[in-house]
Amino acid sequence: MKIVDLLGYQVLDSRGRPTVAARITLEDGTSHSAKVPSGASTGQHEAVELRDGNLTGANSFYSGLSVTKAVLNINSKIKSAIVGLDIDLPEVDNRLIDLDDSERFESLGANATLAVSLASSLAAAHQQQKSLARYFQPTGKLLIPMPMINILSGGAHANRGMDIQDVLIVPHGATSFAEALAWAAGIREAAAKFGQSKGMITHLVADEGGLGIAFKSISTACEFVIEVIDSVGLKVDKEVSLALDIAATQFFQEYKYNLVNANQSFSGKEFVGYISNLVNEFPIVSIEDPFAEDDWESWIEFNQVAPKSLQILGDDLLTTNQSRLERSILDKAANAILIKPNQNGLVTDTLKVVNKAKEAHFRTVVSARSGETEDSWLADLAVGWGAGQIKVGSTHGSERTSKWNRLLELEQIEDCTFNGWQS
Ligand code: PGA
Ligand code: ZN
């Protein structure tokens, strides 16, 4: 079935910032559109998000963040290259590479390429009369991922009221996704009430829907969440554990890890010790970006001393990039990878990264961005790719619940199993 039209346009993400949408029309008259997300604590090795800089007219209100150049790339070069093709995702992605063979889509913008790549995936799934999840895995039981849910937010997502970015929970004792999500929602609600009872400011909701409560120390934040889990009648460690996104690149300056709220500063070696103590003291099953994006030495050192069951998850370190993943496999710098399609720029290439990671026995955690949209394709990708885990933020905000709700739907309508925690 032929592609008869392609339209790029500018929309808003959950932070009210411009982002790119693309809409593909097929010869049967149906249209398939997708919007791309955007990060705040972005890694410097991510594919390039093309933004305009200051412009005049209505776009001047967007402080230079408008995306009309990326949109124009879709409506000119990309449109000419793909309209008239039979819908085929790998072929569309190859055409995008032909148009911009730079390492990180510097010319077209990865926000332009991903929008088109995603819209093509949806159109290709439609052609086969399948859901996006089933397009990637046509037969057999689908795997509904274990969610990692944000409860407390800090760092770049909450005005740095806490030094690290997320304290999350992993409801690994749940026997279904619906149960896991119910536990998470209960814990999130109880955390707000508990904080209020202690006189904390709890009405500030961070970029990913978590509570933006200020905590001076990471330990106090962990203790807070543990107390809340206990208060709702769930067993800490046995049923629900903690996960942290340290997002350490954000506070790594001049070879020092600076915890501003805690008023502490560490060398790489010292910070390996600090993180080791943290994971030994608390029921933490996953730790993301404990070290800065290019501090490979600390990653490698930590990997050697960390408990074998700990998930050591690379986000800014790996940026959903094949060569950085390969380096981390060789160097034994991590054992899990965060998968963010917009760090990569193409759906097929992102899937290649997932497959490479699985081959190396790395766990894969499909992840949303802090700037999201109401689209739910991420849930289908996580399921269709059998990723095993997903991280979308908290249980608040429609840009978060659109993904959770799609997983609830898939769990109801598909032949599937819920992923357990493989420690
Ligand atoms: P970001 O945050 O989208 O702002 O990068 C998400 C994360 O760090 O996991
Ligand atoms: Zn992260």
TrEMBL record:
GO terms for biological process: glycolytic process. This is phosphopyruvate hydratase. Pathway: Carbohydrate degradation; glycolysis; pyruvate from D-glyceraldehyde 3-phosphate: step 4/5. Keywords: Glycolysis, Lyase, Magnesium. GO terms for cellular component: phosphopyruvate hydratase complex. Belongs to the enolase family. SMART domains: Enolase_C, Enolase_N. The keyword Lyase applies. It holds the Pfam family Enolase_N. SUPFAM superfamilies: Enolase C-terminal domain-like (SSF51604), Enolase N-terminal domain-like (SSF54826). GO terms for molecular function: magnesium ion binding; phosphopyruvate hydratase activity. PANTHER family: ENOLASE. Signal peptide: none annotated. InterPro entries: Enolase, Enolase-like_C_sf, Enolase-like_N, Enolase_C, Enolase_N. It is an enzyme of class 4 (lyase). Residues 3-136 form the Enolase N-terminal domain. Residues 141-420 form the Enolase C-terminal TIM barrel domain.
